Each structure stands twice: as structure tokens, then as C-alpha cells.
Amino acid sequence: MPIRNASHRFLRRFVRCPVWVLLLVSALLIPAAAAEAPGLELLSKATAALDRIERQLDSAGRATKQELRTLEAQVATVRASALDCVQGATLEVKKLDRELAILGPNSRADGGAGKENPSSEQAEKPVSSANGGPLQDSQRRKADLEERIARCKLLLLRTDDLDSQVDHHQRRLQTRQLLVRGPGLVDLVQANLDGADRWLDFTTQLAARSTGWHALGPLHLAAAAALGLLGFFLGRSVQRRQLAQVAAMKVENGDVSAGLVQALVACAISYAPVLLALGGLSAYVAVIPRAGGDLPFVAKLVYGLLAYFLVVVGIRSLLSPCRPATYYLSLSESVARPLGRRSRMLLLLALTWWLVQELRAEGLLSEIMFSLTRKAFDLLWVLNVIWVIWLLRRLHDWRDKWSAPLLISLALFAGLLAGWIGYANLERLIINGVSVSLLLFGLALVASRFFADLFDGLDEGRYRWQKTLRQAIGLKGDEYVPGLYWLRLLLKLLLWIAIALLVLRVWGAGEINNDILRYFSEGFEVAGVNIVPGQLLWAILALVVLLTLTRWFKGRLESKWLLNTRMENSAREALVTTFGYLAVALSVIVALSIAGIQFTNLAIIAGAMSVGIGFGLQNVINNFVSGIIMLVERPVKSGDRIIVGGTEGYVERISIRTTTIRTLERADVIVPNSDLISGQVTNLTLRNTWGRITVPIGVAYGSNVERVIETLHEVANNHPEVIRGNPELSEPYALFLSFGDSALMFELRAFIREVDRRQRVISDINRAIDAAFREEGIEIPFPQRDINFRGPLRIERAPVLPRPATAREDPPEA
Predict the structure, then answer these.
(1) CA-CA distance, 733 to 747, in Å (whole number)?
(2) What's the DSSP call for residue 64?
(3) Rounded to the nearest 5 degrees, what angle is found at the Cα of 671, between the Cα atoms of 668 and 672?
(4) Whole-model pTM?
(5) Are 644 and 621 in contact (CB under 8 A)?
(6) 3-class DSSP string for 169-229
(7) pLDDT tens digit string along 243-252?
(8) From CA 522, how far away is CA 753, in angstroms rounded?
(9) DSSP assignment of 235-263
(10) What is the pLDDT of residue 747?
(11) Which residues pair with residue 745 across a beta bridge?
């Protein structure tokens, strides 16, 4: 007690001392002021930046596309800073609210002085002098933070307005560019005919100024040719050695992933001479001195050819696999092979167009020559794309769908017509948009099918690496990979979202991409709840990873880490099951926290739903609690032989809600856990596998009773499954029970080691008793009955009825 009083006196003196109070308040104020200074400086810079952007937008009527993109990036930077300001200040306000709740019950500000408190009529509790200084400081800091939040939100509103203005200017600029009309096809043809001399000089200028041959010496040319030949012969050597291994690869029917791998390897080996030769030339050309400081045209041609053949390998792997690979797609070969040829033609046109653009950049093609070349290229490109579209109509599912190919073809021809009239930008938008959209759609279908086949292989364990992965996770038999369904959904969702964003960008709707990405990163509110799709995707990915790790840990616990302990099998299974449920619950909590869901809101929702759950899900909750009790108390364990109701069998699996019992007929019976807890259950193997058998037997009257008992004892003692010499159990014994109607009734009782083999042991003992009784001359009677008739026995026969008349037969001929 004296020590306690002394400590109270010391604290009172310490608090009353003004020096200590001043130092304490200073220590609290200095970090707060240091933290507020950078925030105010950032707000000032952000406000100045927005003012500058507004002035630039006022004169942005003739701004270029690059200038508008720069302004958009600046607005996005200010918006990110303002959003970080709001989030950081909101967290600090919540922290201060907790401090104010501790310092005084009536000290929390409600966001406005005019709001009335229901308890304002009551006398407020006095605040001690020890809490007065920190309380006022916390209230002042909270007011400053709320002011900062308001200013940051105002910045967010300004950035939204400026962003919409930038988008408006971009749309206007895009509209102007699309409606700019240049020379038409007739004008271009006439201009090129007037300047035909430029086409005649084109070949000479290309060889003299663009290829760079004058800058290469004979030594460089010989070295490049030698390196190309070395790559070619090396590729031939690879062909001879590896094609046999490709032919030995096993591909099941309908296995897309394995078929794609085999086709890729086969096509890469088939094109190995060309690829290695071009690769050697590319490697050497990269170190050749440039003519005039620019890359020579011949080097660009080599790089283009190398890229062309690499893409050809991919196209042939998908549509027309090289030998000895087998065709693996469900697509008809009559469609796939022509589609592959058209795809290679489109690829060759793309390579040619890239080289034409390089010639234009080097000044060899004038604008008039380039524009006419573009018109010819667009015509060839559109014809090949339309050919591909109508090839796809040969498919079984698309034979009756002619409207979509017709509309796409009309759109492409409309683009050509716009270019011939003079609207070159509109032509480029339509042709590029349709072509790239079709390409992305096809790639998405192939990728979707590939991932689906890959995930199916993981669930089934088709290949060695997939089986190894399943064993590492701890999967058995036909068990599915945990969380793989969500991973399928996540990948498919991300794939199609990416395709949609790319398609929008191809069609010039980049501002929509920015809005979508903003919604993904910042989210949107629904009924006062902020939903962030990006966080939801990360939460799904985290849930998949955590569930997979949980399964891996469960497999390790069950198969390795707990094997060397002295725990029983049932105890290990209960521990592993409990760990699994706790890990799954923890994984769900972590995923919800990553998704940004507030657990306070969940608590409110759970409280509101508790009444409905209590009435509507009573049986489910009852079974859930019963499952937890069974895991803790373990009255029934996996592998036990039990009798519940009219069902007898082995406990196969105990889950959180039900228990699976496999009967002796190999049928699975699903029993709710509540029936095992509240009902009567006979567990034949709760603590051990011992069990008693009872074998009734009857002998004929007049048999030697003592000899019968001795024979039964000998039969029981000679069986290997019968337990003898155990102090906890009685020895085998025989009882003379009663005098039956036609036999003396005995009963043999004995304990056996495995109660599961009860029926087999009884059968063996019955056979041994029959043999022993025959040897001893002991008769096993069968029931006999004497029937006495009163009076004479009369036997009556049923009268014989006359045979019915039939058609008269003709007498035989003499």
C-alpha cells in the first residue's frame, strides 16, 4: 500500500509540473507540424499545376495529339497525388478519432458544430487537466486534417473536370483527322504517271544509297556468308537428330496442349536451317559498320525475314503442323490448312509494308509514290482478310451465320472506298481496326482453349510433371487442385479484359481505356460501398495461392511431418482436418482484407443476418457444430466400423457437415454429423479392433455333452484369429444352453483380433466344427416332424372329362 500511494503522488506531481507538460506537448506537436508541412507544400504545387493546365486547355483548340497526351499525363499525376492525400489523411483522422475516444467521451467531433447530440442536455463529464493539452492538440490536428481532405477532394473534382476537357479535345482532334480529305485514287494514279521517272530511278537509288553495299568490304561479306552457311548446316544436323524424338512424343486425341508443344517443336526443327542461317546473318549484320550512321536496308531485310519465319513457325504449329507432328485441333483440316496459307500471305504483306515504310523514312519513296503503294497494299490486304473470314464460314457451327462475315466484308470495302475517295485516315482506322480485332479475337480463343486444356491436365494428372505437381500438393486419385476453378475464372477474365482494352485502343478509344483502368485501380461506389475491381482480382489470386499452399501443407503434415510422431492415425487425421479448416478460414480473411472489405461492415451485416441464419439454417449450423465436436472428442474416427440406425460400415471421411460411411456392399452413405452426436452409434473399433463372436450349434440327443464342449474348445483354440492368454479378455468357452425340439443347443463364444473379419472367422469355425464332429461321430440333427391322421385316409381322384370333339379325320387311302 505505501508503494502504491507513493506512485500516485509521483504521477500527480509529474502531471502538474508545467515543464514536463510543455515538453510533452512539444514532442507531440513537432512531428505533427513536420508531417503537415510537406502535405501543404504538395497541395500548393498540385493547385499550381492544375491552374497551368487550365490555361493551356483554354488555348488547346489546335493542339497536337502528343500535346494532349502530355496534358492528360499531367492531370493523371495530380489526380494520383490528390487521391493519396485523401487516403492518407482519412487514415490519420481515424487514428485521431481513436485517440479522442480515449482522452474524453464527448471529445469526438461530429464534423460540424451545428449538429446536436442526443445527450447534450446532460452535463458533460469534466476533462482532467492532464488530458486537456493533448485533447486540444488532437482536436486541432483533426480539424487541419479534415480541411486538407476537403482541399484534396476539391482537387479531385478539378482533375475530373480537366480530364473530361482533355478527352473532349482529343475526340475533336480525332474527328478532324478522320475527316481530312486528301488526293483520291484517280489523282494519285495521274500524279504517279506524270512522275514515272521517279519509279525508274527507284531501283538504282535503293541499291546505291539504302542497302549500304558500298560500305561493306569483301571480308565482311565473306564472313557473313560463312556464318549463314554454318547456321544452315547446323540446322540440317538438328533436323536429322531430333525429328525421330518428335515422332515418339505421345499425343492423345483432343489433347491441345500436348499437340501444340509437339507441333511447335516439329515446326521449329523443320525451319531450323532457315532460322539458324538468318540468325547468324542477323548477328553478324548487327556488328557491321553502318553506312552513314543508319542501319542499312539489307540488315532490316534480314531482321524482317527472321521475324517472318519465326511467326510462320507459330502459324504452322497452330493450323498445319509440320511432320511428323499430328493434327490436334478440333478444327477441320480442310479449313485449317487454307487458313494457314492465307495467314502466311497476310504476314508476308505485313513484312512488305514494313519495308515500304522504311524506304519512305529513308527518303526513297515520295509521298505520292507512298500513297499509291498504300492503296495497292490495302486492296491486297482487304482481299486476303475477306478470304479468311469466308473460310471460317466453312466451320460446322458457322455455316448458317452469314450476316457477320457479310457485315465485316462490307466494312472493309467501305474502308477501301473511303481511301479511294481521299479519306486516308478513315481508311486506315477501319482496315486496321477490323484486321487487328479479328487477330486478337482468334488469339484469345486459342489462348483460352490452351489454358483450359492445361488446367484440365492439372486436375487429371496427364503428364509426368503434372503428376509430380499433384503429389507435391498432396492430391490423391481424382481430387481436384484446390482453387483452380478461381484461377481459371481469373485468367479468363483477365484475358478477355485485355483483349477488350486492346481492341478499344486499336479503334482510337484510348480515353475509354484510361477510364476503365481508373475504375480498376480506384474503384466505384455502390450503395455507399467502395468496390475496387483491381483489389478483387488480387484477392482472388491470393485466395488461389493460399488454398494451394494449404493443400500442400496438409499433404506434408499427413504424409511426412506427422508420421514419426506417436500420435494415432485418427489423431493425425483430426489434426490435419482442423488445420485445413483454420487455414481455409484464414485464407478467406486475408483475401477479404486484400479486397478492401471492412470487417466492421461485415460484423454489422452478420448481426443483421444472424436471426435469419438462426431460423433458416438451424440444421446446417447444428451439423457444423457437431462436426467440430467430432473432431475434438473423436467418438468416431476415420476407419472405424460403426452401426448407426440401420447402416453398418466403415467411416470413410468426416467433413465439417456430414460423415461418409462406406457399407460392406461398397455403397457410400452420407450421414449428417448431428445424427452421430445426438443419436445412438455403435462403434465396433473405438479403442481397439477386438470383438466377440458367437457360434450357435446343436447336436443330436444322446450325444456326449462333455465331449461336445471339449471339441468346441479345441476348435476355438486352434484358430489363429482367436485371442488366448489376454488378461483383459476371457478365454474361449462353450455353453450348454438348452434342450431344443430336436437337438441339444450349445454356443461357442470367443474374442478375435480383428472384428472386421468376424464373418470370415465364423465361417472358418463352422467348417472346423463340422469336420471335428464328423471325426468324433457327433451327429448334427435336422428338424423332424411326425404327422398323425385321425380316421381312415381317403384318396379321391378327380373325374376324367371326355375328350372334346375334333374335326373328323379322313381315312387313310388304301
Answers:
(1) 9
(2) -
(3) 150
(4) 0.57
(5) no
(6) HHHHHHHHHHCCCCCCHHHHHHHHHHCHHHHHHHHHHHHHHHCCHHHCCHHHHHHHHHHHH
(7) 777 766 666 6
(8) 68
(9) HHHHHHHHHHHHHH----TT-HHHHHHHH
(10) 93
(11) 698, 738
